[in-house]
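[agent] plan:
  1. take the single chain provided in the ticket
  2. run structure prediction with default settings
  3. attach structure tokens to the ticket
  4. add a short note for the reviewer (M.T.)
[agent] executing step 1
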Amino acid sequence: MGEHICFRRNDKLTTVNPHWRGNPMVRGKFVNRQHRFRPGMGSVLKWRLSPNPQRKEKKNTKWEPRMSYLRSLDGVVGNSLVWLGHNSFFLQLAGKRIMFDPVFGDIPFVRRQSGFPANPSIFKDIDYLLISHDHFDHLDKQSILLLYKNNPQMKLFCGLGTGELIQSWLPGLHVIEAGWYQQIEDEGLKITFLPAQHWSKRSVRDGGRRLWGAFMLQGDGISIYYSGDTGYSKHFREIPGLFGAPDYALVGIGAYKPRWFMQANHISPFDALTAAAEMNAGLTIPMHYGTFDLSDEPLHDPPKVFTAEAKKRKMNVYVPFLGEVVKLKRMK
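[agent] step 2 finished; step 3 output follows
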């Protein structure tokens, strides 16, 4: 018997890829284009029971990331980006304020390893909340409830199915769900939801029900690519053809070891640089490291490896410290 496949998208939104019919769902679950990896309990156990060659280093090296505590947003003028740890960013672009995957504290079963560089209540006048996918280290209920309390006017832009879940917590929230390659436009700002190679799951029965992805933001002549969580795949190569070379690429570098287990879903510092080179990014900024201990490598490993490798490859990268206000400009 053939698998039951249907294609889903939001028919109200424009698309940047007219050849894409929508996201395929096989037996009610979203799938990746290339890699059909589903992390079963067997492989999780195999990983947990395997020796970790960096165990000692992990235990003995204290992780002390640099932080610049952000007391208010008053000093954030013009187009600016602030890394808040893991995949959380505050962005000001084309007169709009945007939050990416905000996680203000600990997540279920995992303690935060670095401080949050601001009081979460300073994030006011937010126009858009962007959520890349439904995993707890990206979609945190408490953080979103607090953000919404201070920003009842903000709009949520996310993948198909994710908005439905968040709306069940906040019925008043304005939600826009997208399939891959779908775009919204607001005055001088364009935001596009794009492919990533990952998966989704929050409970025993909801695996694959919500779509994961990446984002491209364009405004004031500046373009910013945000990878979400993703394995290395051919989707990076499409970016210049769709948008031109991005000025900035925010790419994940952590939770990458052991490779046999993490490779399908998390790019390594090496893959991240390859992806940025394929996109011809002006400046690459790393994320998804140093905040939650989710894998075999020590917390200090990804930025160290990333910086050394970028030097070898003569690539333009910047590793901001927590809470630092990075001024954005056209790179090309």
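[agent] step 4 note for reviewer: The chain has one domain: 67-327.
[agent] ticket updated
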